[in-house]
């Protein structure tokens, strides 16, 4: 009888831990990765055209006193621009490269330089040239959702992993020949860090 009374509060307490982590204690600190520079062109800069860059971003949360990583810590992330979307890691998966389409011209039947909506999936796969890995992203994140804010929790290594889909960069002139920076910021409440995405 005593055992069940002791276990009940533990079970209730376990069920109350939010899936987005717990609030960071005062000694938690966060580090953002280095900035990213993209080779960008005005032809890529039409929002919603399906042409962009998918960037992997890891934020690290650690104990500022002893340097140890901290798991299950809640992190808020914001994109400083409406053309750069934050995509949770669950919406992106590594996949095998599909067979090449039988007719590459069928990917762009109208010849406008954009992949047709009804083209084969193999026309639209993402390539990580450094690792030779291919990624598939949930299309709703570049089409319907376009989120610029998310809340996540660090994993057992103290890392919050997410992706940023760069659909459009802010142009600094009317001809879109030069582009400004976009800042991705991660916040713990009392500490924050950010990285810049820039175009060359």
Descriptive key words:
five-stranded mixed β-sheet; single chain; 200 residues; mainly beta; disordered N terminus; Immunoglobulin-like
What would you note in describing this structure?
The protein has 200 residues and is mainly β. It has a domain at 21-93 and 138-199: Immunoglobulins (Immunoglobulin-like, Sandwich). Helix content is 10%, strand content 34%. It is built from two helices and twelve strands, in the order H-E-E-E-E-E-E-E-E-H-E-E-E-E. The protein has helices at residues 2-15, 140-145, and strands at residues 28-31, 36-38, 53-63, 74-79, 84-88, 92-95, 126-128, 133-137, 149-153, 159-166, 182-187, 192-199. A five-stranded mixed sheet has the order 2-12-11-4-9, with no helix packed on it. The chain has a four-stranded antiparallel sheet with strand order 1-3-10-5, with no helix packed on it. It is globular, with a radius of gyration of 21 Å. The model is unreliable at 1-17 (pLDDT under 50).
């Amino acid at each position: 009888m005593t055992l069940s009374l002791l276990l009940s509060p533990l079970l209730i307490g376990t069920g109350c831990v939010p899936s987005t982590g717990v609030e960071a204690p005062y000694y938690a600190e966060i580090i953002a990765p280095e900035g990213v520079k993209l080779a960008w062109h005005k032809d890529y800069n039409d929002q919603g055209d399906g042409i962009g860059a998918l960037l992997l971003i890891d934020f690290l949360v650690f104990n500022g006193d002893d340097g140890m990583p901290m798991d299950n810590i809640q992190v808020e992330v914001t994109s400083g621009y409406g053309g750069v979307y934050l995509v949770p890691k669950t919406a992106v998966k590594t996949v095998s490269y599909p067979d090449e389409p039988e007719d590459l011209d069928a990917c762009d039947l109208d010849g406008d330089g954009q992949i047709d909506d009804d083209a084969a999936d193999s026309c639209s796969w993402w390539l990580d040239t450094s690792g030779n890995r291919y990624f598939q992203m949930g299309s709703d994140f570049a089409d319907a959702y376009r989120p610029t804010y998310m809340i996540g929790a660090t994993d057992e290594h103290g890392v919050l992993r997410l992706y940023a889909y760069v659909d459009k960069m802010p142009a600094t002139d009317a001809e879109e020949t030069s582009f400004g920076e976009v800042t991705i910021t991660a916040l713990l409440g009392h500490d924050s860090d950010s990285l810049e995405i820039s175009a060359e």
